[in-house]
């Protein structure tokens, strides 16, 4: 008689576990009013006056890390705010304009806010993973630097083009994401974005070579770096960058999303008095 009793107890435990799991799934089901926290780590690729598309051998990839908070307002739409720290760099010696020898590197912060839109309703049970798009605007602080004779120098203060540009610039960010893994409270997404910077000085290069006769020796040396190759410097007014297009950067990241609280969880906490 002991075996049937044990079997019945085991079956009851399994059924209870399934019921509790179902209750937890309902409690943590993402609905309008849900708050989520997420962080991303990924690879950046700068685009600007010193970059060159199609150069597979020298992609010159950087890194980026960000933290974001998301608030769902409907079955397909969420608000999102994010802070980010990203590293980008480029060396002209790896491009077809190698003879100019310009380079920069930059570790910059940015902040933005916008919307995230799912392609299908989040409660669509026939969609295991729902892709999404995002769009927003914000600000970044540009800090381009370059190495010269074994030391690192900030380029903006040197005015290498004879221009005192603003290091604080607006940004527009857009991109797409794809959820890959999910359980009750955690998600893992793959996300790709492009950040359009509303400035052409993310890399400290924009227009033409200035008259270096009124510059300090350091500023003149970092304005035109042909002398380091033993070639003749550019004359004032020669093309240094492309004023027709602003700079920007791509980022591909893996993102870990954590469900902080849902309407169902709020209701459950009220019921148990917490």
Describe the structure.
- A hairpin with a 2-residue loop joins strand 6 (145-148) and strand 7 (151-154).
- The strands form two sheets. Strands 1-2-3-4-5-8-9-10 form an eight-stranded antiparallel β-barrel. It has a two-stranded antiparallel sheet with strand order 6-7.
- It is elongated.
- The protein is α+β, with helices and mostly antiparallel strands.
- It has helices at residues 2-27, 217-223, 263-271, and strands spanning 35-47, 61-72, 77-91, 103-118, 132-141, 145-148, 151-154, 168-182, 186-197, 248-261.
- The longest helix is centred in the first third of the chain and has 26 residues, at 2-27.
- It is built from three helices and ten strands, in the order H-E-E-E-E-E-E-E-E-E-H-E-H.
Give me some keywords for this one.
274 residues, 3 helices, 8-stranded antiparallel β-barrel, alpha+beta, 15% helix, 42% strand, two-stranded antiparallel sheet
